[in-house]
Amino acid sequence: MPWEEDPGDLYEHAPCGYLTTLPDGTIVRVNETFLAWTGYERSELVGRKRFRDLLSPGDKIYHETHYAPLLSMQGDVHEVAFDVVCADRRRLPTLVNSVLGRDPAGHPRAIRTMVFDATERRGYEKELLKARRTAEASELRVRALQQVVAELSAAPSAAEVAGAVVRAPAAAFDAAFCNVWLVDPDRDQLTAVASTDPDGPARDDIPCSSSRPIAEVARRGDLHVVPTIAAAEERFPELADTMRRTGIRSAVLLPLTTGFAGETIGAEVLGVLSFGFTEERELDEPELSVVRLLGHQAGQALDRARLYDDAGRREARAMFLAETTRALEEPYRLMPRARNLVERLVPAIAEWAAVRLQIGPAGLLADAGGPAPDQVRLAERVAIVVANGKAEFTDVGADPDCAVLPLTAGGKVLGTLALRMAPGRRTAAAEAAFLSDLADRAGLALENARLYEQERAIARTLQRSLLAGDLPSDPRFAVETHYQAAAQDLEVGGDWFDAFLITQDKLAVVVGDVVGRGIDAATTMGQLRSAIRALASAEAGPARLLERLDRFVDRVESARMATVAYAEVDLTTNEMTYACAGHLPPLLTEPGGSPRYLLDARSGAIGSRAGSTARIEHRVPLSPGSRLLLYTDGLIERRTRPIDKGFEVLARTYAGRRDSPLPGLTKGLAQTLVGGDHPDDVCLLCLSLGTEERLERSIGADPVQIALLRKDLRGWLVSHDVDDDSTQAVLLACSEAVANAIEHGYRNDPFGIVDVTATISAAAIEVEVTDRGNWKGPTGEVSRGRGLRLIRQVMDQVNFDRRDGTTVTMRRTRREAR
Amino acid sequence: MTDQQWVTFAKMGSADLVRLAGEIDLANAPEIGREIVRHTGRSGAVLIDLTAVSFLDSAGVRLLDALVGDLDQAGTPIRLVVGETGAARMTLKLCAFRDDLLATDLERAADELGG
């Protein structure tokens, strides 16, 4: 039969090796197959070698510790893997089965061993093992990547994204020296933001156009793997230096890009991740794909963070603009608005900010924060911006981040806003839209404040000029007035006073109040004041005057509903006729009596349609020494108390000051009744009939004031029928004494006060001049000496008292009495 | 208040005429002095008209005294024209100004200086 086989040939050429050994392992028989596999000669083995002698060193140990004991105990072993060392030292992977044969007495007789070639199988096993290791490594990387992706998705800001990304290469690849750079589009540079270096990221901003590898990767947007220092030397010598310095042998530069993996067109590079290995390392394709994936994941997270940042910033900006616009509306006046603006900007937006306004000869400036930039350079740039009306967001000079924006309104440049953005913020150029919007709004708000300021100034000037007119003076009466503007920054009111002589012997006094505020009210007040002067006549009287005013407001509508208290005094008979058109009642004190309100002769406001315009007047005889007070409602009206209470307080205060000299009386009343912090204008006029027996004045240490004092003193002397020579003499002596007090007593104290008191009797005039200054040194100075000599020449008695300051008492006997 | 003209200048014949008005005292005398010096530095003759002065104190006297001293030294003739009565005359008399300096009539004083 063709399949009949010769047993001998079957043994020799079986598809496996056969060995027969003695129990001690000495080979006694071996087949041809084994010899062919191992390359030994039969004679080399039989009787000369033990089976274990053919094994690799490790397998010899295994043979002793496992194979031999197992065989002797069980009588057989199966599929033991041994590497047989061939004649040419090659190792042949095998699997071995052995059976221990025993003699009938049970003693070991021989071992039969079958040897299978396991080369293929061992290769396969190795493959398996390797595959498993690869899978494990890949799983580690995937886990690291998953961890990073989880962290990235939770990172709301670019800085946090960078922080998560920088940890990934170490976790996934056991990499070292990882750094993250982010592209800063505003500054066109790459900024190191995160590093595994314990010292933190390098303070080393790289311009995007730089030839450095980080910039190159950012520009090209593809992954750069530098396997060796030598490779780095070729392309990026600088990188080679860094690698040497930091002990890196292989480096990877990974762009962090938007878009999806594999997409390169339209993908934007937002940053670069660099990392290295301390030994030379080739990254295989699966590893590279993980690296690329990391780049995309990080890029998307950065993109998200950027959008999130943008949205947040836009929201914050919109809120800031809205709040600032609102806040700027609050103070009416210009400087407080400008201050408000810079204080809102610093530190929220800028580290330094300054508003300059081209108003007034020197301009106005409000600034906050610091450090301020170089003033010379800033002034140049401000001039350019004012001239062009165009913002400059950066500068080529030493302070590139300092921006200057025009503040415009109605096409006119009002001034500039200069600022340097807070550190760590986006540049002014990047915030151009926001800053321009802010400057536009600020420009409008400041222009409005400027207009307000201008109108206010005009109204005040107008009002002052109208009120400043000369009041009549006459020995038979004296008029004292006071006008006090509202303390708060409100517009001027339409309050006014006036006193004028209608005829030689007929005096008119008036206090009124026009409806409204501001320049219109001031103008109307002026018109009404002039109208009253023009309409008053010797024959008409108060009631007729008010009727004419009623007709007047038909033409001057803004004067309608003005209120007026008007009185005419016949200086020959001391009879007063008065009328009140909607105005508060005059307050009268007569010598020896209590103050009383004059409540007759009341009718409605001027031009009133609802109020009574049947104009009536009332006559009151006045005794000499009477005082009549006219005032506007600011003096007594308070939101916190009923008006009748106000009347009561005024009457009481007025009564308390009945003995006070007329000068300063109205001012004192206003101060006592309304104080410094009053929300409304206050206007008072006090008419005193008959004259003061005693003249008292306090003047500041200013030569200009001496002329005013002389004016009062002259009027007072005239009213007491003092002759001309004596009047001249007293004026000269008093002037010299006051000049002395100012020039010597208060030579170091411009705020000193000189008190002057003059009294008169039938026999003499006496003047006392007192200062509290420090009169040092000689009176012998020629010029002053001349002054003192003049005093002694024109006065009959002169006495100096220098105990506490200086009091000069001077007396001149009246010539008519001499 | 300050727009009042205390001092004005004119020519009268060959003389420079300085007209003073209002109240001359410590407050305005130095300024007036400077004005006069500025206008009369090279005058051949100076006439100071004080008839409209309603008050004159020692500071005003000091001013006039210094002015007269300077002009005398330069050999420039000067006259102070004051009213028959009034504040200026009173003060100057009290300070014993030389009679040859004082005149009461402007035209005559101008003639004297011119002659």
TrEMBL record, chain B:
Taxonomic superkingdom: Bacteria
Membrane-spanning segments: none
PROSITE patterns for this protein: STAS
Leader sequence segment: none
Every STAS domain range: 17-81
Coiled coil location: none
Cross-referenced Gene3D superfamilies: STAS domain (3.30.750.24)
SUPFAM superfamilies: SpoIIaa-like
Protein name stated in the entry: STAS domain-containing protein
